[in-house]
């Protein structure tokens, strides 16, 4: 059985949607979304009515995206996305997943990449090893979305599904710090 590790809500739809459609993995969102709430980020479900972006909102968006993609087996871990450093709970959780799943789809380690994306990458390498791992590219802080790998092949109807899955992340489409990821190209890349 295959598992896909997404460091945050929406990483799976943004960077590994075609892998989900191809491999039908269990999807694990490795961190609970709390940083946007703590920073006071909001979105408008109805025009003129700002609401905070909560972890419940992000879970609901992921649930909707997973339904679009036909994913029945997914979960969010309780590790807050505000944690930094080595994150031993994350390392242990990924090691535990490796016992029950033979293959793993995880973000690639990227110099200058998001710290938590790189941690998930390192821990996936430790738990699964290179022969049991498919790595997807995400973005680097200075160069935007990664394009340095091989593009992922997709079936003709998959881009429409990806559009529909991405549209479920309404709070992220509206926020200036994340909007560009949702408004750009649909290409995905692997190492």
Record the strand order, biggest sheet.
5-2-1-6-7
Helical fraction = 40-55%
CATH C-level class: Alpha Beta
The CATH topology is given as Rossmann fold
Summarize the structure.
With 191 residues, the chain is α/β, with parallel strands linked by helices.
Topology overview:
Blueprint: E1 2-6, H1 11-15, H2 17-23, E2 26-29, H3 35-38, E3 42-46, E4 49-52, H4 55-69, E5 74-76, H5 88-100, E6 103-107, H6 115-128, E7 133-136, E8 139-140, E9 144-145, E10 150-151, H7 158-167, H8 170-174, H9 179-183, E11 189-190
Parallel strand pairs: 1-2, 1-6, 2-5, 6-7
Antiparallel strand pairs: 3-4, 8-9, 10-11
Give your account of this protein's structure:
With 191 residues, this protein is of the alpha/beta class. It has one domain (2-190): Rossmann fold (3-Layer(aba) Sandwich). Helices cover 41% and strands 20% of the residues. It has 9 helices and 11 strands. The strands form 4 sheets. The chain has a 5-stranded parallel beta sheet with strand order 5-2-1-6-7, sandwiched between helices. Strands 3-4 form a two-stranded antiparallel ribbon. α6 (115-128) links the parallel β6 and β7. α5 crosses α6. The protein is globular, with a radius of gyration of 16 Å. The mean pLDDT is 93.
């Amino acid at each position: 059985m295959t598992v896909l590790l997404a460091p945050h809500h929406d990483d799976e739809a943004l960077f590994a949607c075609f892998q989900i459609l191809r491999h039908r993995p269990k999807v694990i969102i490795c961190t609970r979304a709390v940083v946007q709430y703590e920073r006071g980020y909001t979105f408008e479900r109805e025009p003129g009515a700002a609401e905070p972006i909560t972890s419940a909102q992000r879970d609901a968006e992921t649930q909707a995206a997973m339904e679009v993609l036909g994913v029945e087996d997914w979960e969010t871990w309780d590790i807050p996305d505000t944690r930094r450093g080595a994150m031993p709970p994350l390392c242990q959780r990924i090691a535990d997943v490796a016992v029950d799943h033979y293959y793993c789809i995880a973000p690639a380690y990227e110099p200058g990449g998001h710290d938590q994306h790189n941690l998930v990458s390192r821990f996936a390498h430790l738990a699964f090893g290179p022969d049991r791992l498919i790595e997807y590219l995400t973005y680097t802080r200075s160069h935007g979305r990664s394009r340095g790998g091989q593009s992922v092949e997709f079936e003709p109807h998959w881009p429409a599904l990806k559009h529909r899955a991405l549209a479920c992340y309404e709070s992220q489409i509206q926020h200036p710090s994340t909007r560009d990821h949702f408004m750009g190209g649909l290409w995905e890349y692997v190492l």
